[in-house]
Design brief:
By secondary structure, the protein is mainly alpha-helical. It has seven helices and three strands.
Length: 206
């Protein structure tokens, strides 16, 4: 009778993973802290250098018209005085949004610490972008005005008139992390019911 019982196929088959039904999968192993921080620093370092170069290349600069008294901005040029601020904001927000989303998804096993890593990396990228842009494109205005002749046009120096654009990096990275965290909230399966009682019933004896 025992042989017949062992030969009787069970109506329930264990899941391929060998885990009981309703058991959530084991979390993925976390990578070392040093690797996570190093990759984040390198990514935002490169992004900051490229963004700083782009800021210097594509920022619309106001043009001073040189006369006997120095340089003056016309009415049309006055509207371009804050062009570098807008360009820095746009480049920084988009860059931090994309990189922040990618890095936060990659570091999601760290929980809240992944937000801190990404946001601090974005702040570093903002500072690097500003430094590279200033290094490449910030020429003192007064010296160029003194060397120019009446009628010449002299570009305004590349600079930020307020520190608000620098926060665009932080906002972009934080927004990306918030959206992904909300979209994946409680995405892992949760066991809400136990196995059916029939699974514990022994097979009939023949």
């Amino acid at each position: 009778m025992s042989q017949q019982e062992s030969a009787q196929p069970s109506p329930y088959v264990a899941p391929p993973s060998g885990l009981p039904l309703g058991t959530p999968p084991a979390p993925e192993p976390e990578m070392p802290w040093a690797k996570a921080i190093l990759v984040t620093v390198v990514v935002f370092l490169v992004a900051g250098v490229v963004a700083g170069w782009a800021w210097q290349q594509f920022s619309p600069l106001a043009q001073y018209t040189v006369d006997e008294r120095g340089g003056a901005l016309g009415e049309e040029q006055m509207t371009r005085i804050f062009g570098p601020d807008g360009t820095f904001t746009s480049i920084g927000f988009v860059t931090a949004l994309v990189l922040g989303a990618a890095l936060f998804w990659w570091l999601r096993n760290y929980g809240p610490w992944s937000v801190a890593i990404v946001v601090l990396g974005a702040c570093m990228g903002s500072g690097i972008a500003w430094g590279v842009g200033m290094l490449l494109g910030h020429d003192p205005l007064q010296q160029r005005l003194e060397a120019a002749k009446p009628g010449d046009l002299v570009s305004a120096p590349l600079e930020l008139h307020t520190w608000t654009p620098a926060a665009a990096w932080l906002v972009g990275a934080a927004l990306a992390a918030a959206v992904i965290a909300a979209a994946t909230w409680r995405s892992e399966p949760v066991a809400t019911t136990s196995q059916p009682g029939a699974s514990n019933t022994p097979p009939p004896v023949h």
